[in-house]
Amino acid sequence: AELKDKFQARTSEAAKLETELVKAQETVKAAEILIKQLDREHKRWNAQVSEIADELSTLPRRAQLSAAFITYLSAAPEDQRKASLDSWTKSAGLEKFDLRRFLCTESEQLIWKSEGLPSDDLSIENALVILQSKVCPFLIDPSSRATEWLKTHLKESRLEIINQQDTNFINALELAVRFGKTLIIQEMDGVEPVLYPLLRKDLVAQGPRYVVQIGDKTIDYNEEFCLFLSTRNPNPYIPPDAASIVTEVNFTITRSGLRGQLLALTIQHEKPDLEEQKTKLLQQEKEKKIQLAKLEESLLEVRDINLI
Known about the structure:
elongated; single chain; 5-stranded parallel β-sheet; 11 helices; 3 domains
């Protein structure tokens, strides 16, 4: 009986050891698979780190080129823009610089086009200037297409639209400033003196709030207030003192710009499915990037569990 008990004990112990051995073998196998996966990811992550490091090293110079473009080239024709930007890029020690890729994504450009923005390079660059400039944009827009696009783009921003010649112009301006609206002033003929304090941000602190002088009145200034100026006049007179406090954005169509718009319209007419396909591919790319980020996070969680 004693031998039988010892035999059963040894048998149970052997079975337990065998179970633990199988479990250990499974753990080793899982670890080997994980190591291989991590090795591939490690190589890819190293490549990404290298790319990000390169981008970070040139980021100040690319940001400087973007700021220079917005400040000095927003009113220039396309040929001058290209020549100046190429020269600046070379002086900055960069092989190439793509303003559009640096300041926005393909998806954003597609959204702008769907909102009515012409698809030529000039219009896309001008849209970037309008949305990135810290100084009030003054749109020179003979066709009004850019202004219509801006209205659509800003429709969710408590938008109000007035003409400079409206009888309630001053009243509408005061209300927009007080309540933090987004205001587009159309049919500008130069820059009205009443706008100068707003354009210069001549704000005066009164306790916890700021006020600004509009005509004869002192108005509470809401920091959410945003102003855009627009004219259909291709050659508006902007005096030097006003030119320094607005960003002139010229949408006057040039030969190359017209060529680009006609090409886009031709493609849209002849191959209407191409734009839709491009939109779908960009959406898929966006979804895949999100999925990849989740998988990377999951892989790291699995690694942590296995290490424990």
